[in-house]
Structure formats: C-alpha cells, structure tokens
C-alpha cells in the first residue's frame, strides 16, 4: 500500500468536525456573480496561473515600511 493511500484511508477514518456556528452567515445572502464577473474571474485566474511568481527578497513587513 502506498503512503498516499494510507494517508487517504487514515483521513477518512475520522468524521469531519461540525462547522462552527460562527461560520454561518446571518442576514442577506451574497448576490451571485454575474456571467461577466465570472468570465473576468476565470480570465484573471488563468493569467495568474501562467505568469511566474514575482521574486522578492523583502518580507511583507519590510515591504510595508
């Protein structure tokens, strides 16, 4: 048996904990995205996946100074 298969079996052996009540939204539900917004999001995702990650030696804290 591969270690990956063992990990999957082990993960499935335990039930998922119940969701926290804090995760539930109260009030109005979010509006669904328009087809135009969905298309734009897909384009941005494809672009982000194709472009190389910028290499920076600065940490986030240093960049914000």
Structural description of this entry:
The structure is a single chain. The protein is mainly alpha-helical. The chain contains three helices and no strands. The chain has helices at 3-12, 35-50, 60-63. The chain is extended, with a radius of gyration of 21 Å. The N and C termini lie far apart (51 Å).
Largest sheet: none
Rounded radius of gyration (Å): 21 Å
Number of helices: 3
The secondary structure category is mainly alpha
Helix content: 40-55%
Mean pLDDT: 77
Offer a few descriptive terms.
mainly alpha, 0% strand, 65 residues
Topology:
Layout: H1 3-12, H2 35-50, H3 60-63
Entry summary:
This protein is mainly α and 65 residues long. It has helices spanning 3-12, 35-50, 60-63. Helix content is 46%, strand content 0%.
